[in-house]
Amino acid sequence: MPSLISKSSVNPLLEGLDLIKHPHPFIMVIFGAHGDLAKRKLIPALLALFMENLLPQKFAIIGSSRTQLSSLEFQKLMREAIEKFATDLNPSPAELTKFISKLSYCPVNIDNNADYLNLRKAIQDLEITLNLKNQNVFYLSTPPSLYSPIIKNLNDVGLGGKASSDANIWPKIVVEKPFGRDLQTCKELDNQLHDVFNENQIYRIDHYLGKETVQNIMVLRFANAIFEPLWNYQHINNIQITNAETLGVEGRGVYYEEAGAMRDMVQNHMFQLLGMVAMEAPGSLDSEAIRDEKAKVLRALRPLDLNNLEQCAISGQYGAGYISGASVVGYREESGVDQNSQTETFVALKLYIDNWRWANVPFYVRSGKRLGKGITEIAIEFNRVPHRIFNDENYFGFNDSILAANTLVIQIQPDEGISLKLMVKQPGTTTHLKALNMDFKYGQAFGTRTPSAYERLILDCLLGDSTLFSRSDFVNLSWAFLDPVINLWHTNTQKNFPNYEAGSWGPESSNQLLANQGHSWRKL
Amino acid sequence: MKMAKTTNPQINEFLHGKFLKFDIQAINQELRQFWIEAQDNNNNNQLSTTRACSNNLIILSDDFKNEDNLADLIDNIMLYSPCRAILAICAPACDDSFEAYASARCHVTDSNHKKQVCSEQITLKQAYSNASAQNFLKHSLEMASAIASLILQDLPVIMWWHSNTFSQQYFQPFGYFIDTLIIDTAKIFNSSAENLYEFKDCLKLPVIDLTATRLLPWRKSIAYSLDAFFKSDSIKFTSVRIINNKPAKFNYSYEALYLATWFTTLLNLKFVRKIEATDLCLIFDRIEPVNQYINHELPIYFSCVPNPKACDNNIVKISIFFEHNNDEKNIEYEVSNNEIKTTFANEQSLSKICLNNNLIIQELLNSNHDHTCLKTLNQVIDLLKVLMESHNA
Predict the structure, then answer these.
(1) Which residue has the higher pLDDT, A214 or A201?
(2) Which ipTM was obtained for this model?
């Protein structure tokens, strides 16, 4: 028999192989499986991962909602959803059949403990078939009001439970935003989650973080030596983060009445973008290191002056107008919306981050519905040149001769990419200047299909990588910062709503917010 | 290839790949003109054309018959990795001639056929009637200088050596400006093993060996299935058996030899001798006196069993025998319906194989090239020399 010479821990045969991690076998339970999110995003994302061979051999997906369906009926529904919403995937019939065979259904009335016992039985049966033990993911694709009873009932029937060690991160729970509707409810939700799960078992999905360009912000900043030296108050004049939607509330009037733009977009998506663009370089790509740095940004936010709120926070609500040549109704005429609604559909903020890097650099954040175009971008406007040798007057006041600020734009949607505005000389015998954009578009530079945000996030969750998920302290900090503003807005019922036309770029006061600093919103 | 129509007949002709005969300067001029006119179209709100290019891809072939197939492949490559493709074919003919063509490769990116992304393909065809060594070098220099003048500056230059044979003399002039060489050493070996010895001198360049890429599913299956044993406790390999699917010229296939060399190189073993009976057996031993992966020597057996089911990959089955916690164990890997079936302790798992049609695309998209390829290639060529010498003797 060979003698033990040394104990090896590194597999030499892995050298040179692309180390794509593969998740452990799992059973995923999707609560709200009959809903839109599951049909449009979750099931197509799981199918895409399956087709890419990124799921383990052994896995099962249990759909669950209060609707009474058999597994066969659920499979048929999901097959139809894939045909309708996953048109870019083109699975072969064999692939689709194999994937669909992994789906089953267990009806659960959220408050009915007996239904959870049935769910437990369904999971146990699958565990025997797949030879698994407690490798479950519970995906809460339900209205947030249902999170609490689901968490409680999962725990009551023994499906929840804190992981015994850092190495063991099962079971996992995935929750969709909004994470509470203010600081208090957020803390309540956190407490409920933490009663049953450890923080490293909780995955708060903010799908913006799964987008390719958002992940590219870190690469752009920390893998290119030219930007980071300029990434501070000495060279950056202002930063504008815009989320403009042409859509209205699209039948979600009841939900939106309770949420508003601040809760729906700013507290989560916009603050995540702010964190990515303003954070210090993390020590490593470790998820905690990155999330620590993002949380520090929120801690350094200068509190908004509630006594002069209009100087730093603007709210708006759209009235009737025109979008893409078609007339649309105002917010108050939307289904499910109060005709005297005071809910904001537009928010503009002027923020300052009080730290060494960002001293007195304004971060302008705006998010609105029914605006002129559907665009999400981050624009970093650099300082202008300190001395102008190209004098406009010598060129008869040509607009092109005005020196535009260099602007780096990170486009998040619809066309993910990066552009840099530069001044160049127009060809000719005279020195006329022109601002041109150097463009990079993801779809053009890389011909490959870009995975959806949900594909990336679901895979990360299965792998136990929480980098692209919101951590408890970040969510709490964002609520703590915005709560006073939301409260003040909601106690003031005399807002002059609606104050912008659908198809415009928001209320005039949002322009004034920047004009006070000598800035203006980018024309999009 | 899907292409949208333009109202400009010249651009239409160009977009649809009608070849126009030009000299090199004319090609550059034509390409410039195309993009100017495409820009005008954009400005006139007609068909919007975007130029895309992330590298220079030179494909060097030695057979005019390959032109159509390679053009189709370039079309496919452009979808995934937009590039300036230079298809260079140098082959014998009755007369000396040199032709150059340019065309655009476009694909529509939106359902309304309003937007398309285009890249350029330039085809250079060099026919020669006199294949003397001196002329051969001259042809090589001509082709290399033509290609050098067509390369887009500041973008990586990747050359795919598509010929079945490899000539150090012909390759040399290209070596000055290419960044990465893609080659299929199995193809070269099957043409002439001696060609492969010449190729060893080129291993100073980053090399992507499509043989290594083709063997990736085997390598991954082996590496992943043994991972738990490497991590949990000591593992001692006792023997390996590799079965090829078709009788080769020799009693081993190049792929089988390559895989065995990959395995032993990464385990820090060296070839010591061969034993030839019914099957070929190569014996590997420790480079250092101490090696935790074998106790004394590791025999690797090669045998040939015809198997029509076995894809293009000519390894059919691998068995790895080892000791773990003083227990004798073995894992088997077998091709089954385009998948590798891994069997250990009566449990099976599957991993997909057969990436052959997309090997080039896969490599072009992969920015982290496998550095073990170079180590393995060096070893496998040395091993081949020994085997060939003994075979000739």
Answers:
(1) A201
(2) 0.81
- Domain A22-205 sits in CATH at 3.40.50.720
Residues in B touching A3 (Cβ below 8 Å) = 295
Q: What pLDDT, on a 0 to 100 scale, did the predictor assign at position A4?
A: 33
- Closest residue in B to A442 (Cα–Cα): B52
Residue of B nearest to A447 (CA): B80
Tens digit of each residue's pLDDT (9 = 90 or more) over B26-78: 777 778 887 777 777 666 666 677 777 888 999 999 889 999 999 988 888 88
Active site residue A269: yes
pLDDT digits (tens, 9 = 90+) for B313-353: 578 889 999 998 888 889 999 887 667 788 887 666 655 55
Tell me the chain A residues in contact with residue B216 when contact means C-beta distances shorter than 8 Å.
17
Radius of gyration over alpha carbons of chain A, in Å? 25
CA torsion angle for A482, A488, A494, A498 (degrees, to 10)? Answer: 0
Question: Which tokens sit at B58?
Answer: 């030179």
Contact A279, A363 (CB under 8 A): no
Domain covering A210-452+470-515 assigned CATH 3.30.420.40 in the classification: no
Nearest to A282 by CA among A217, A206, A211: A217
Structural domains of chain B in order of their starting residue, each with its CATH number: 9-183 (no CATH), 214-355+376-392 (3.30.360)
A-chain residue closest to B297, CA distance: A2
- Give the whole-angstrom CA distance, residue B193 versus residue B252: 13
How far from each other are the two terminal CA atoms of chain B, in whole angstroms?
53
CA-to-CA separations, A459 to A117, A468, B156, B285, B349, in angstroms, rounded: 28, 11, 32, 42, 20
Mutation target vs A (from B77, B105, B220; most A CBs, 10 A cutoff)? B220
Whether A8 and B222 lie within 8 Å, measured CB to CB: no
Q: Tokens in use for B240?
A: 């390996």
Q: Where are the domains of chain A?
A: 22-205, 210-452+470-515
Residue B160 reports pLDDT greater than 50:
yes
Catalytic residue among A22, A34, A207, A269: A269
